[in-house]
Structure formats: C-alpha cells, structure tokens
C-alpha cells in the first residue's frame, strides 16, 4: 500500500497536492473519502482490507486524521498491518489540518514510519508566482506591481484562488487585470487594514489614521470595541517582535516563528521598527485602560478611540 501523511495550514494547497499524487498514478482508482471522527478507525480498516466488487484500486483520503492519535491500540494495530501490506496497490492519504500537538504523539510518529510525510505551509508557498502562472495560462495580463497588490489582499491559497476567479470573471473580455479592479472587486483582509492603521498612527499621519478608521467602521462594519481588542493584540505582538528583533531575529525568522506569510511578517517588522519599546508599551497600556473604561461605561467607545488616535 502507498501511504502518505499530509500536514497543512491551508486545505486548498493540500487538495492540490492530493491531485498531484493522483495524476502521477498510472492506474485508475476509485476515490474514497473518510472522516475518522465521524466513521471511526475500524470502518477505515475494513475499507482498506476489503476487496472492491470489480477489483478496482482504491484512493482513500482520510480527513480528521488527528483523531488517530487518540485511538486505542487495538484498531491501530490493525491499521498498521493494513498499511504494511506490500501486495496492495491502494493509496492511503492521512490529512492533518488542525493546529494541535499531534506531531508530538507517539501514535503519530508510528504512523510516519509507514508513510511518506509531506508538510505544506502557506508561508512557504510563493503566492505571487502561483497567481502569475494562473493568469498567464488563462491568457490574462497583469503587471508585477498589480500582482504585488493582489497578494496583500489574500492570506491563503484558498483566498487567492477565489480572488483570481472573481477578477477573471470581471475582466473576461479585456483580459487585463488593473489595480482598480482589485480595489473594486476584492475585499481586503481585516488584519492588513489594522496593520496599516497602526503604521499611520506610529508616524503621526492623523488624516490617514482617521481615513482607515472610517473605512473599518463603514465598509468593514467593524465594532469599535472589537477594533480596540485587535489593536491591543497587535501592539502586544509589536512589543514581542521588537524584543525578538533586538535579539537578532530577521524577518524570515519572525515569519517562521509566528507561522505567518512574508507579507504579514513585513508589516510586523515594519511597525516594530517604527517605534521604541517604551512607546509601544505606553500605547499598549493606554489601550488596555481604554478597553476597561469602555466596558465599565466610563467613556463612549467612539470618543475614547478617537482621543487615543489624537494623543
């Protein structure tokens, strides 16, 4: 049997890898999807050890594979035996998508002994090159500058695919993607707006601060109390990144440590370098106090945040 383990933080990228594995096979396979959490391990073992009615080969994709690390020894022993069947030409793929500590499990380590291991992380996927190839293959033109803007609007391969589909449908006749098309048709991730808000705040660009703030309220319809919570989170993140940078870490190190894309790491490093630890800490303390005052009713949320931006 041909066994694979795929661990990922992007289901779309994992599905692409599964399609690549499938297309590399010379034989025809019946594709079967299993969810261990719903169907149980014994059901999977039965599927693997039962010969198909027409003797066809099986391509089995197991979702919710994290549940295997909690399974009892009896069904696991049968699973290992089925996986170790050298006479079988079936394909078995375990898909791990949840952010858990399963990799530390002895059961996961045992599973790896019988499998080809593939780890897919969004931060390691060159999204710009992926998008460029898709547009070129589909006959669309896009400049590098416009492509760079598009990448700031997505945070996963899944969201990039959706954005490409929307843009190609919108520009089906002209076959040329412009900056204005992206700004009109694609929704910008909330985190990016918050990072830009902080960037403007740190360099005292008050007009830009209030412009972004207005867009967040009117366009994104974000609650002010929620925005305050986001700002607290980002200033805490900035404080941590600032300390790490002083310790000699690079942008690549930050991206790996926080498990984020290079685009996200760029904003994190840029903002951390735009201020000193003392100011970052002072802003963080002011935001925490503001959050408490809003919740206790001492100040209205809009007024409180606007005064913070003006200080």
From TrEMBL:
Q: Which reaction does this enzyme catalyse, per its entry?
A: DNA(n) + a 2'-deoxyribonucleoside 5'-triphosphate = DNA(n+1) + diphosphate
- Which parts of the chain are coiled coil? none
Q: Where is the DNA polymerase III delta N-terminal domain?
A: 13-119
Q: Which UniProt keywords apply?
A: DNA replication, DNA-directed DNA polymerase, Nucleotidyltransferase, Transferase
Gene Ontology molecular function: DNA binding; DNA-directed DNA polymerase activity
GO BP annotations of the record are: DNA-templated DNA replication
Residue intervals of the DNA polymerase III delta subunit-like C-terminal domain: 192-311
- Pfam families assigned: DNA_pol3_delta (PF06144), DNA_pol3_delta_C (PF21694)
Q: According to its UniProt record, which protein family does this protein belong to?
A: Belongs to the DNA polymerase HolA subunit family.
* NCBIfam families (UniProt xref): holA
Q: What is this protein called?
A: DNA polymerase III subunit delta
Organism the protein comes from: Anaeroplasma bactoclasticum
């Amino acid at each position: 049997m041909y066994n694979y383990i795929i661990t990922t933080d992007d289901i779309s990228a994992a599905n692409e890898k599964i399609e690549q594995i499938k297309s590399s096979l010379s034989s025809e396979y019946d594709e079967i999807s299993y969810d261990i959490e719903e169907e149980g391990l014994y059901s999977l073992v039965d599927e693997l050890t039962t010969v198909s009615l027409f003797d066809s080969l099986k391509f089995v994709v197991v979702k919710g594979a994290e549940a295997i690390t909690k399974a009892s020894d009896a069904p696991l022993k049968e699973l290992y035996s089925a996986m170790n069947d050298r006479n079988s030409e079936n394909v078995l793929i375990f898909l791990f998508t949840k952010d858990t500590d399963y990799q530390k499990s002895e059961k996961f380590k045992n599973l790896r002994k019988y499998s080809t291991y593939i780890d897919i992380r969004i931060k390691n996927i060159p999204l710009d090159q992926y998008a460029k190839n898709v547009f070129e293959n589909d006959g669309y033109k896009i400049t590098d500058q416009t492509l760079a803007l598009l990448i700031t609007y997505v945070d996963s391969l899944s969201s990039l695919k959706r954005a490409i589909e929307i843009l190609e449908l919108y520009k089906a006749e002209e076959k040329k993607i412009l900056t204005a098309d992206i700004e009109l048709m694609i929704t910008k991730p909330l985190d990016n707006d918050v990072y830009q808000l902080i960037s403007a705040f740190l360099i005292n660009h008050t007009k830009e601060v209030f412009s972004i703030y207005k867009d967040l309220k009117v366009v994104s319809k974000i609650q002010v109390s929620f925005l305050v919570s986001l700002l607290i989170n980002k200033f805490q993140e900035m404080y941590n990144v600032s300390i790490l940078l002083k310790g000699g870490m690079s942008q690549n190190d930050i991206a790996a440590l926080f498990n984020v894309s290079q685009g996200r790491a760029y904003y994190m490093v840029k903002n951390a370098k735009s201020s000193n630890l003392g100011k970052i800490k002072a802003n963080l303390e002011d935001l925490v106090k503001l959050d408490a005052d809003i919740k206790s009713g001492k100040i209205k949320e809009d007024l409180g945040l606007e005064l913070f931006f003006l200080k």
